[in-house]
Design brief:
46% of the residues lie in helices and 15% in strands. The chain binds adenine.
């Protein structure tokens, strides 16, 4: 059997069914897969992918393999791996996978390095850890890499910082910046899956509770809207006046986090920043408050501060629910070690939305392979025609037709002479 490090290879059959289920809800990716298997646009391309190892990711890597790519996969987060999916990719698809749910930090980085031992020509990243290790610790390999793709807002922020500092050594496609990615995945995907993760972990009723959403980017917008849909009273906290104003006019309460901390029952961070929920906030939270994070890294809740203000060891009330008791006797509950709760306690975004995100990855990879030579060491977005084509295909797969401009209307929109 090919090299791998997965929890239990005997889980492969369960994984196979789970992948089949996801693929049945990914019509756009399936169309790309049919074309890729005929045209083989990725023939011989060595790809190291660092993604959440889920059934949806399996659909993507199987598509790339049929397109001719020689691919190795590792986890992009220690808690997000679906062990049965990892087993199936190894046993049924002969794709080397390095990912175990619950792996410690050391193993996480060993897995990243195992993926880089593949000597990729293309990196496919989710959060920029693979690119970071390559640039910081394995510079000798950088000359072999022609391009990369990045899935998340967090990763794209890091990459732009690298490009600005002149240290990024190859062009990277910001998949996150496609409209058919962030407008849907970040909003509807994060919205639904984060509520799903919090509810699966705690089984608490959201109706009538005060739910604090920290950050009103695309993920925060989606989460606030879905939490409201479950009957929660939603408070949004922001640092950007425009986004704060938007949240207010979307009908949410807006206030500083310190004030919200006294009122909230459930808190969820989706900012991409660090120590957003800090000691000062935890000091005034109510007994029983629940804290979760759905941003990429486990840096948004200051866990060392929570530990420092607690007495005794946390009690594991349920899987993914650690209860800390403060010196003044309040019980504060931290979900999923502060790691992204939608993938830690649930299954991440549903397949139907990952369909578009991963259509962008697949077509983006094809685009980068074809164009890498003419691109600078910078961050790129997918051409608008590809983005719109993905939306068109998704609509078609959902049985929805739309109108087209008449010739007269098209002309009107491109001219400036006509007035009142
Ligand atoms: N990111 C968020 N949800 C995901 C999923 N289901 N699969 C892969 N990456 C994800």
């Amino acid at each position: 059997m090919i090299e791998h490090d997965v929890k239990d290879i005997n889980l492969a059959t369960a994984g196979r069914y789970k992948i089949e289920w996801a693929e049945s809800q990914m019509p756009v990716l399936n169309l790309i897969r049919d074309r890729f298997s005929k045209e083989r646009p990725l023939a011989g391309l060595r790809v190291s992918a660092c993604l959440h190892v889920t059934s949806e990711t399996a659909a993507l890597v199987r598509t790339m393999q049929l397109g001719g790519a020689d691919i190795v996969l590792c986890a992009s987060n220690p808690l997000s791996t679906q062990d049965e999916v990892a087993a199936s990719l190894v046993a049924n698809d002969e794709i080397p996978v390095y990912a175990i749910k619950g792996e410690d930090n050391k193993t996480y980085y060993e897995h990243l390095n195992a993926a880089l031992d593949h000597h990729p020509q293309v990196t496919m990243d989710d959060g920029c850890d693979l690119v970071s290790v390559l640039h910081k610790e394995r510079e000798s390999q950088l000359g072999e890499v022609v391009a990369g793709t990045e899935e998340t807002t967090t990763g794209v922020i890091r990459l732009r910082a690298m490009a600005k500092d002149g240290v990024l050594r190859y062009p990277v496609l910001a998949v996150n910046d496609s409209m058919t990615k962030h407008f849907f995945d970040n909003r509807y995907g994060t919205g639904q899956s984060t509520v799903d993760g919090i509810v699966r972990a705690t089984n608490i009723l959201l109706a009538g509770r005060t739910f604090v959403v920290c950050g009103y980017g695309w993920c925060g917008r989606g989460l606030a809207s879905r939490a409201r849909g479950m009957g929660a009273n939603v408070i949004v906290t922001e640092i950007d006046p425009l986004k704060a104003l938007e949240a207010l006019m979307d009908g949410f309460q807006v206030m500083p986090l310190l004030e919200a901390s006294k009122r909230g029952d459930i808190f969820c961070t989706v900012t991409g920043d660090k120590n957003v929920i800090d000691a000062q906030h935890m000091k005034v939270m109510k007994d029983g408050a629940v804290m979760a994070n759905s941003g990429h890294f486990n840096s948004e809740i200051n866990i060392p501060a929570l530990e420092a203000m607690s007495v005794g060891a946390p009690r594991q009330m349920r899987p993914f629910v650690a209860q800390y008791t403060t010196e003044d006797g309040r019980r504060l509950n931290l979900l999923g070690d502060g790691r992204l709760i939608n993938l830690a306690a649930a299954e991440g975004h549903p397949a139907a939305v990952m369909d578009m995100s991963f259509a962008n990855q697949a077509l983006g990879l094809e685009f980068m392979r074809a164009n890498a030579k003419s691109l600078d060491r910078d961050v790129y977005t997918i051409p608008e025609e590809i983005d719109r084509e993905i939306a068109r295909l998704k609509l078609h797969s959902m049985g929805v037709e739309i109108d087209t401009l008449t010739e007269e209307q098209a002309h009107y929109l491109s001219s400036w002479q006509e007035g009142t």
